[in-house]
Amino acid sequence: MRSGGALVAVTVRPGPGRVGFVVSKKVDNRAVVRNGVKRRLRAILRCEKTRYARRAEGAVDVVVAARTEAKDATYAALRDDVLATLQAALARLGEGRSAPSSPSSPRRR
Predict the structure, then answer these.
(1) Residues 6 or more apart whose Cβ sits within 8 Å of residue 67
(2) pLDDT in tens, 6-40
(3) How far is residue 21 CA from its own chain's centroid?
(4) Burial class (CB within 10 angstroms; exposed 0-12, middle 13-18, buried 19+) of 52
């Protein structure tokens, strides 16, 4: 499930429990700046992994994609946005898992 915030977009899918980061050249053309954003995102998820691991039902793959505003954001603002967006994505994933599956063939009346 995908969820978007002001600074990042988070995609969560059932999987073996990996985390990936996407910081495109749209954020900044310089690799130094893009790597700095990735370092901050990595540090946020490293510090908060127990918090979001409890919310996930089973192992999940997480992809965090930075928006252009992320390069100028403070660490606190980035952390708040990442955690809120991740929480929303995990909630949507939980809703999708608990929803009844639709029948594979249409019902006849």
Answers:
(1) 6, 7, 8, 9, 27
(2) 999 999 888 888 889 999 999 999 999 999 999 99
(3) 9
(4) buried
Angle of CA points 92, 102, 88, to nearest 5°? 0
Full DSSP string of 30-99: -HHHHHHHHHHHHHHHHHHHHHHHHHSSS-EEEEEEE-GGGGGS-HHHHHHHHHHHHHHHHHHHHHHHHS
Buried b (16+ CB within 10 A) or exposed e, 22-46: ebeeebbeeeeebebbbebbeebbe
Write out the two tokens for 18.
Answer: 């990996």
pLDDT digits (tens, 9 = 90+) for 39-71: 999 999 988 877 766 666 677 888 999 999 999
Mean per-residue pLDDT, 2-8: 87
What CATH topology corresponds to 2-95?
Ribosomal Protein S5; domain 2 (3.30.230)
- What is the predicted pLDDT for the residue at 38? 96
Which residue bears the tokens 């994505």? 89
